[in-house]
Input
Amino acid sequence: MTTSTLAAERVTLGYDSHLVFTDLNVSIAEGSVTTLIGANGCGKSTLLKAFGRLLPPSAGAVRLCGEPIRELSARAVARQLAILPQRPLTPAATTVRDLVMRGRHPHQSLLRPWSREDAALVDQAIEATGMTELADRDVNELSGGQLQRAWIALVLAQNTPVILLDEPTTFLDLSHQLEVLRLVRAINARQGSTIVMVLHDLSLAARYSDRLIVLHQGRVFADGEPWEVITPEVLATAFGLEALVIPDPASGRPLVVPLEPAESSERPSAVRSQTQVQQAS
Amino acid sequence: MSSPVLAVVRRSPVNGIAVLGLALLLGVLASLTLGSNPIPPAQVVQALIDPARDTGAVVWGSRVPRTLMGILVGFSLGIAGAVMQGQTGNPLADPGLFGVSSGASLAVVLGAYLGFSSMTASLFLAMAGALIASVLVFTIATLSRDLANPVPLAIAGTAVTALLNSVISFLVLTNQSSLEAYRVWVVGSLSGRELDGLFPAFVLASVGVGLALANARSLNSLTLGTELAQGLGESLWRARLVGLGAITLTTASAVALAGPIGFIGLTAPHIGRALVGGNHVRLLPASGLIGAVTLLVCDAVGRVIGGGQAEVPVGVVLATLGGIAFVAIVRRTKLAAM
Amino acid sequence: MSGRQGVDLGFIALPWRARLLLVTLACVAVVVTAFTFGIAAGSSRIGVGDVWTTLLGAGSRAFEFIVFELRLPRASAGLAVGLCLGMAGALTQTFSRNPLATPDILGVTAGASAGAVSAIVIGGGGYSVGASLLGVGIPVVATIGGLLAAALVYGLSWRQGVDSFRLILIGIGVTAILGGLTSFLLVRAQLTQVSAATQWLVGSLSGVSWASVWPMLVVLAVVTPIALSQSAPLEINQLGDEFSTGLGVAVQRHRLAVIVAAVVLTSAAVSAAGPVEFVAFVAPQVARRLARSSRPPLLASALVGAALVMVADVAARVAFGTEIPVGVVTALIGAPYLIWLITRKNREEHL
Output
């Protein structure tokens, strides 16, 4: 039985106006890459925030390595768990390096404001995200994708065994999305980090995760390895999506192929698509 | 705010405007009927139709001008505040930020210093001062060559306002008549104006309101961020200019009439946003209506509390009651940060 | 800001902030100069060298009288007021993430003003600021008023913690309420009282004695280390409350510490000299632009504030025919300088 690094036990979560989850149980195993998926508004980010100590549950507890996370100090948690929230604020007059340096904060104190180790980790994080050439650029001048990589570098510099990423691939083009996800996997392989992500792209989630959790209507709708979870039935019910699931030729993982409504009762044929191409040109 | 009202309003923004319109009517009624000499509504209506009646003098002589002034000033300030916050993207922005109130005040104080203290003189002086001040602010902001960024505009405005205020302080502390004129002026009051004195201000304010409404779509784009706005085809320069014109004309007329009444421009947009949302096409009129209602109510209260000479100036009531109401609203509502 | 890595001194390493260090040192130099001129200038001029020899105990009796009895208290007051307001302004603008925020929005200034004006109008007669008659009364009343108002604002904005935006709006509301009450008093008061009150409201260093200076120095000594200890969390908090929690900042505790520091600093300064206009707004803005940093640096802001107030006071005493309150001059000097800084094309401008 794998030890659970992060666990939500009988958790009731929500905002003033409405509850998103009631009596929810989710546990995350150490060293795994788990992705939370689901339709918009299903509560993926809400759950991630609860894991990250950003949203207190109104009932139940979130545990980090067995300890209730509420009872730990913010600093103690920050040394174990890093979270990249959805819309961080970008400060003025800050270079990429300055930004990434802030990731070392939980490990610093008044008596030890900066050390060689801090510098080394910052450099590593910048290199790992491919930001070395941009390290001295002002963050306000970066493109959306570059800025996203800078945020990830900050989180990497924090150097924690658990990393939570809330939609880390927004604004990135496909090649950069793949870069980020490969980086996540590399960190997981190299350091055994436990990673929990929220992603929108189902095929990418399937390709790069060990485990997928589908949230729907306030509960865990499906939970398991990608092939167990990504099925046409799950897609139809939890996502309202008519789709085929085929093996991805490159990775062998499930690939979601959405169907156009008119064709949902027939399988698409190669001849038909060719005709459509001819008609279109 | 009670939940049933909010629920009705939230269902559709048009409801919000309708509720505010109703509130305005009630405000007008209050303004016309209440005072040290309360007149029942029926008589008010009769007096309105037939001015020669006994209460006609009071109604037409002082109540109607006051009411109209209250609507004009409140509406102008409310709209000006909404445009200001939309232009600067800063929820702490107040129309006085452009130096308009201070420019007007300085002109009035200078006028008193030099001996011009008649009503009409101060009206025109105030307008001139307001316009000059805002031109100054806009020039400075343009010189920073960064119209895309609202920060220099806000900072230029604050700097110019402080500059003008210090000149005012200097004059006021060294000259008794200036001090006398200033301390009455600075509090803000709706009393003592005649109907025909309102006309130039009304014209100016109307132009200003027109410009503001014309600026509404640009404001919607600006709040998305200036890059996106330019992508949507906004001419930044024109958007800023129209906005500035709107703020200046509306605030200048309001301040010229009633003195530098603060607070409405700052708070009405926040309440408006809570009621009808952030679309400026609806937010601008809503802010205006909120400003008008608030001012009318506060003026009526001021008249009821103290009558005649002892009446409490609307600026004082506004700040006190308005502040209390605002705090209560902020506490109860879930605010959308800008 | 330079992207260079830390300076490693072996036993301790410091993050390298070249420009900030230079700017702070330059500000110290300016402050010392302004302090010297503050003592040197006046109806009887004293040479700069004489100022320092006298301060060090080797001056003539006449000089000793002028320096220690007349000039030093006032220069020290200017220094202390500027330091307090500059730092309070930096703290407020940083935690609220808004360059237009001043400590006034926390209600402190309005509370202190309401207290002071009440004392003048209700309690006093024709009285001028700093007269020993009410010399003890007004600062104490102002302090109490300021602290009460700030506590009220904080308490009213508590809702499972304090959100900066809500705090600011409630602060504005409370400031308006207290401002209304103050205006009401002024409208009803006699003209002499109004004159005295207006003097106080503008901010003035005339008639400050050592009695007003000591409290400020004590406050500075106590609060500055606290404020500096919050420097790192302030930097992190610029990324937003969520990120701050994720990086280990106890956001509510940190915010309370910052607010209390700003309130106490402002309260001390306002009680001594009245609400000196504009310093808390402009000093952090100037310091931030000079240092090209992402937020107003605490020490540099304090020093710029001190320089501004002292230079303004010298100008107020000497440049015009009669003595005018320092609050009038701070804007006259500070505003054009800030405007000049803005119009110099500066690309790092996204606050």
Residues 235 and 295 of chain C are 8 Å apart (CA to CA). The interface with chain A takes residues 1, 3, 5-6, 8, 12-15, 97, 229, 232, 235-236, 238-240, 242-243, 245-251, 288, 292-295, 348-351 of chain C (CB under 8 Å). Residues 14-344 of chain C form a domain with the ABC transporter involved in vitamin B12 uptake, BtuC fold (CATH 1.10.3470.10). Residues 1-5, 125-135, 347-351 of chain C have pLDDT under 50 and may be disordered.
